[in-house]
Specification:
Shape of chain A: globular
Structural class of chain A: mainly alpha
Number of domains of chain B: 1
Radius of gyration of chain A: 22 Å
Oligomer: heterodimer
Number of helices of chain A: 15
Number of helices of chain B: 14
CATH class of chain B: Mainly Alpha
Largest sheet of chain B: 2 strands, antiparallel
Strand content of chain A: under 5%
Distance between the termini of chain A: 31 Å
Order of helices and strands of chain B: HHHHHHEHEEHHHHEHHH
Shape of chain B: globular
Structural class of chain B: mainly alpha
CATH class of chain A: Mainly Alpha
Strand order of the largest sheet of chain B: 1-4
Helix content of chain A: over 70%
Helix content of chain B: over 70%
Distance between the termini of chain B: 17 Å
Strand content of chain B: under 5%
Number of strands of chain B: 4
Largest sheet of chain A: 2 strands, antiparallel
Number of domains of chain A: 1
CATH architecture of chain B: Orthogonal Bundle
Order of helices and strands of chain A: HHHHHHEHEEHHHHEHHHH
Radius of gyration of chain B: 20 Å
Strand order of the largest sheet of chain A: 1-4
Number of strands of chain A: 4
């Protein structure tokens, strides 16, 4: 059991600390921020980004990422609306989510089977998916006014709007999968040491394609919910979403080098993002201060992480040195014999 | 004889992007008689000047083993500064953007090199930071320069019939190629990308090399900012965003490896031209705009697959040689 220092406490609790500080600031500034409607609004607003983020968390733990989620969101919304207009709401929803899974499969095959770096391949598929959405919609927004299609995101449970319920249920399922099943264990293992996994006979490529499919399906689910809430879909939307999502996941504690991180951290980061957006509206500041703040936060956390990791490494090295001084290297004949 | 054919195969494989360009050009020439005219090529290359120059800078950083996503905001910031300074003093409008580019590059470099932050995520952060700062400083509006005088000539003048931006692009491509192949700094940049520990053990100040690469990229983006500003006259803060995908595509298409240490600046230039030819070809063949994006994406993925294939073949050739 490593010693819990003030620094590790700060490191682990940085997101709750930042969120707490922001809430405290708002408490002094504007009490009306805390009315339930606004808090629910923040959650509801965050649930689209949240769905994208929890889907990609598994992928990023296994050391890949997917830049195409923004286009995936757009294209699946377009497909859902167009299929719903022709074949009914249920078919539209199913087609939307299925198309996302197929997009994930394409990404997965390009990365795992064709061995293209995921940054490059998903950059390419991002352009392709958006291009397909352009071609399907003729670059105009498409609308769907079927009440059954719009009711997908209309209902409430215990005062919580449907998008929050969807987000939370997907998050809980993925959290359980990550924590208790081979789905999660493999993700950590592949992210930590992919060659080791191959040598152990783990079906590395199969798992990675699976994570891409999960990511794609989550993104398209978010796209379908968005389309159902707006009653429309447009191809010219969601270009920078993937970068925001990747940044949120990194803020949430999943390193780009993979093999670590947890889902609650990512959810915390998504909530922080929603909180900042809502705060800038409440404080009535120029919209780009929000982006400035978000950028400073991202840079700050990344630098903070690196500094912490360095000091932690130095501490471990020092402990190792002290241990060696106390008990000099034993004769290793025992080990080799 | 066998040796010659082997060497020929090696040459073809290692310059696969040139083969792509030749194939595309021949196909275009057969499909459209307007393609191989001087006016069309001048048009293609003129449109490529800004993304081409930026791609050279970004490629340097990627070869050194990093990546810089903040170039879009840097480009907009440099162009806006040039547009602001241009009515006041011509020389100031040249020096200012270069200095700003170098400073922003140095800022990225300090984050990545001195503090050891991951280049992808920290330059994503600085991309937002620079853009937000630019928005706040300019108030979100257009920065208007005037459309006359020597500054206007940078993007619109001609020397011996050739538009100046093309000359500038070729000049910079030659300069960076010279830098990477003929000077010690260039060799160190490659070495830093492929094996920075080795570089350190060889007694080179690896961090300084890495930092210099970032500053160099900033300078190159500064040049692109001047050209952009001179062409547009007025600069909006979001002006750089549309170059983000093009530049990354050109760099990756040219065979520069994201793992660092691999790639050639000459190929980056060729890859930019390939993208320009595809764009131009779709216009000449009157492909509907709504299909263009899809075609571009497919060509990109195919080119990457082809690139991977040739790299693998090349590696096998090298192995069989021993």
């Amino acid at each position: 059991m490593p010693k819990v220092t003030f620094q590790t406490l700060l490191f682990r609790g940085r997101l709750p600390l930042i969120i707490g500080a922001l809430l405290l600031f708002m408490a002094f500034n504007d009490r009306s921020f805390f009315i339930p409607e606004n808090l629910i609004n923040i959650l509801s607003y965050s649930s689209i980004n949240g769905l994208l983020a929890v889907g990609m968390t598994l992928l990023m733990i296994s050391r890949e990422f997917d830049i195409s989620v923004g286009s995936n969101l757009v294209l699946s919304g377009v497909i859902a609306v167009q299929v719903a207009n022709h074949f009914g709401a249920a078919a539209g929803i199913a087609a939307g989510v299925a198309s996302g899974a197929v997009m994930g499969l394409i990404n997965g095959i390009l990365v795992a089977k064709a061995n293209i770096n995921s940054f490059i391949s998903t950059l390419g598929t991002m352009v392709i998916f958006q291009g397909v959405a352009f071609a399907l919609t003729d670059m105009k927004p498409v609308a769907c006014d079927l009440p059954t299609f719009q009711s997908l995101a209309e209902w409430e449970l215990l005062g919580l709007p449907a998008p929050i319920i969807y987000f939370l249920s997907v998050a809980i399922i993925l959290w359980l999968a990550l924590k208790f099943t081979r789905v999660g264990k493999s993700a950590y293992a592949i992210g930590g040491n992919i060659q080791g996994c191959r040598n152990l006979g783990i079906n590395v490529d199969g798992w990675r394609i699976g994570y891409f499919i999960i990511c794609g399906a989550c993104a398209s689910f978010a796209g379908v919910i968005l389309a159902s809430r707006l009653g429309a879909a447009s191809a010219t939307f969601g270009e920078n979403v993937s970068m925001v999502v990747i940044a949120a996941i990194v803020l949430g504690g999943v390193p780009l080098s993979g093999g670590a991180g947890s889902l609650p951290g990512v959810i915390g980061a998504i909530l922080l993002l929603g909180l900042i957006d809502s705060m800038t509206v409440y404080l009535n500041v120029f919209g780009y201060y929000q982006k400035l703040f978000w950028a400073l936060l991202l840079i700050g956390v990344v630098v903070f992480d690196v500094v912490c990791a360095r000091r932690e490494n130095r501490r471990l090295e020092l402990a190792e040195l002290l241990r060696l001084q106390r008990e000099p290297l034993r004769d290793n004949t025992e080990v080799t014999s | 004889m066998k040796d010659v054919s082997k060497r020929l195969a090696q040459l073809c494989l290692s310059h696969s992007i040139v083969a792509v360009l030749i194939l595309l050009s021949v196909a275009m020439a057969l499909l459209s008689d307007k393609f191989f005219t001087a006016a069309n090529w001048a048009n293609v290359l003129n449109n490529l000047a800004v993304p081409g120059i930026v791609a050279l800078g970004v490629a340097l950083v990627v070869i050194a083993g990093g990546i810089d996503l903040s170039f879009s905001s840097m480009l907009a910031a440099c162009a806006a500064l040039a547009a602001w300074l241009q009515p006041q003093n011509f020389w100031l409008a040249l020096i200012g953007p270069l200095a700003l580019g170098a400073a922003l590059g140095a800022f990225n470099g300090l984050l990545v090199v001195k503090l050891g932050a991951n280049p992808l995520i920290s330059t994503l952060g600085t991309q937002w930071l620079f853009l937000a700062a630019l928005f706040i400083i300019t108030g979100g509006g257009i920065v208007q320069g005037n459309m006359e005088g020597p500054f206007h000539l940078i993007a619109n003048g001609r020397l011996a019939g050739v538009p100046l931006p093309i000359l500038l692009l070729l000049l910079l491509a030659a300069a960076t190629s010279f830098l990477t192949t003929q000077t010690s700094l260039g060799k160190y940049i490659y070495a830093h990308g492929s094996n920075n520990c080795g570089l350190r053990f060889a007694g080179v100040n690896a961090n300084a090399v890495y930092l210099k690469t970032f500053v160099l990229m900033g300078l190159i983006v500064g040049v692109a900012g001047i050209v952009l500003s001179s062409r547009l006259g007025g600069v909006r803060p979001t002006e750089g965003n549309r170059y983000l995908i093009v530049v990354l595509t050109a760099v990756l298409l040219s065979g520069v490896s994201l793992n660092g240490g691999v790639g050639s600046l000459f190929h980056v230039l060729i890859a930019t031209v390939v993208l320009g030819v595809i764009d131009n070809g779709m216009v000449l063949l009157a492909v509907e705009y709504k299909y263009q994006q899809m075609i571009k994406g497919c060509v990109f993925i195919l080119a990457i697959l082809y690139n991977n294939y040739t790299t693998k073949q090349l590696a096998m050739l090298r192995v069989s040689k021993r």
